[in-house]
């Protein structure tokens, strides 16, 4: 593993051209970019005549309501028996711990790592990490051009999903002129952009609204308001009959509060890893690098959006956030 090396676009295109059998994977709790880049890449490789298997863990299914319209019927939840003979392609996954393929991916023959996280651990045999890409979908779109694969509407819909979710609907600073060019090209391919926005951001289950209400009520300000945070307990989820994925979007409300430099949503979870907290952070003005804080807590992410899982108690967790923010401001 080399922490800095990133291979070129040409090497990546060659590796995709030369491979015959592929296994495509993404990170756990797949978001719009994870799904969009995974499934679009699968269509691209199939159109080149490749044998492609895409994987999403059983724990991550069914997909949450925002993505329920995404067709994952052809995606497997069992690691294929012929894994050894497949080129494994990780999409949108900053480190192997974020994938259920941790063991299997330990010593891959050929492992392609296609991502845009600046703190990607470069775990592949080919690492194509484009830090200034808004989304992995944007990288996949560019690779489709490099592979001379024409866009079709199905691909374009998936790529648009990745693009809009990772740019916060084109609001974050990662939405560059190139991202907007991509959007233009995808819309011209015949997709209904408004319909995709409505599917992802509307049709909220009422339980999600109730969970938002609890989170907003529980809002706390720390460090003279520089840190705005909220905590959701497992009881909150139960009382609202809310799924854990219904927290999506809460931290964006917190970030918008006047005086906030970092927003954090802390949620209690009890999953296969036992009782723990999941922390989601957003930086408001970009002045504080939340991926640094996430790494201090054992996770990672982007400077403006990052997260980690922690076994610390609630007070220690808040103290950690405060100390880390004070160090940077
Ligand atoms: P979230 O707050 O869950 O939307 O996550 C924001 C970003 O933080 C994601 O896009 C990931 O890049 C990163 N992230 C979240 N959780 C983790 C984790 N446990 N380990 C590494 N990166 C993470
Ligand atoms: Mn992602
Ligand atoms: Mn992404």
From TrEMBL:
Entries under SUPFAM superfamilies matching the protein: DHH phosphoesterases
Domain DHHA1 stretches: 249-321
GO molecular function, one term: nucleic acid binding
Matching InterPro entries: DDH_dom (IPR001667), DHH_sf (IPR038763), DHHA1_dom (IPR003156), Oligoribo/pAp-PDE_c-di-AMP_PDE (IPR051319)
Residue ranges of coiled coil: none
Domain DDH: 21-162
Pfam families: DHH (PF01368), DHHA1 (PF02272)
Record's protein name: Unannotated protein
Protein's organism: freshwater metagenome
């Amino acid at each position: 593993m080399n922490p800095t090396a990133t291979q070129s676009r040409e090497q990546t295109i060659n590796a995709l051209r030369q491979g015959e059998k592929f296994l495509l994977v993404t990170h756990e709790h797949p978001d719009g970019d994870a799904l969009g880049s995974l499934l679009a890449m699968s269509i691209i490789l199939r159109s080149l005549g490749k044998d492609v298997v895409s994987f999403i863990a059983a724990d991550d299914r069914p997909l949450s309501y925002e993505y329920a319209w995404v067709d994952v019927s052809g995606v497997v939840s069992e690691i294929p028996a012929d894994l050894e003979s497949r080129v494994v392609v990780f999409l949108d996954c900053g480190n192997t711990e974020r994938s259920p393929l941790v063991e299997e991916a330990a010593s891959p023959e050929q492992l392609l790592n296609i991502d845009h996280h600046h703190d990607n651990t470069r775990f592949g045999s080919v690492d194509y990490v484009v830090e200034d890409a808004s989304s992995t979908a944007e990288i996949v779109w560019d690779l489709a051009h490099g592979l001379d694969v024409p866009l079709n509407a199905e691909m374009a819909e998936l790529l648009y999903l990745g693009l809009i979710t990772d740019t916060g609907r084109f609001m974050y600073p990662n939405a560059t002129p190139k991202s907007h060019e991509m959007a233009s090209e995808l819309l011209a391919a015949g997709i209904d952009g408004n319909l995709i926005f409505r599917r992802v951001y509307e049709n909220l289950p009422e339980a999600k609204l109730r969970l938002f209400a609890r989170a907003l009520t529980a809002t706390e300000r720390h460090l003279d308001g520089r840190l705005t945070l909220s905590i959701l307990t497992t009881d909150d989820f139960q009382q609202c009959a809310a799924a854990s994925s219904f927290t999506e979007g809460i931290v964006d409300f917190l970030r918008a509060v006047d005086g906030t430099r970092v927003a954090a949503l802390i949620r209690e979870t009890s999953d296969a890893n036992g009782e723990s907290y999941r922390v989601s952070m957003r930086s408001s003005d970009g002045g504080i690098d939340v991926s640094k804080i996430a790494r201090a807590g054992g996770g990672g992410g982007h400077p403006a959006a990052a997260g980690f899982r922690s076994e610390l108690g609630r007070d220690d967790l808040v103290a950690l956030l405060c100390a880390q923010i004070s160090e940077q401001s």
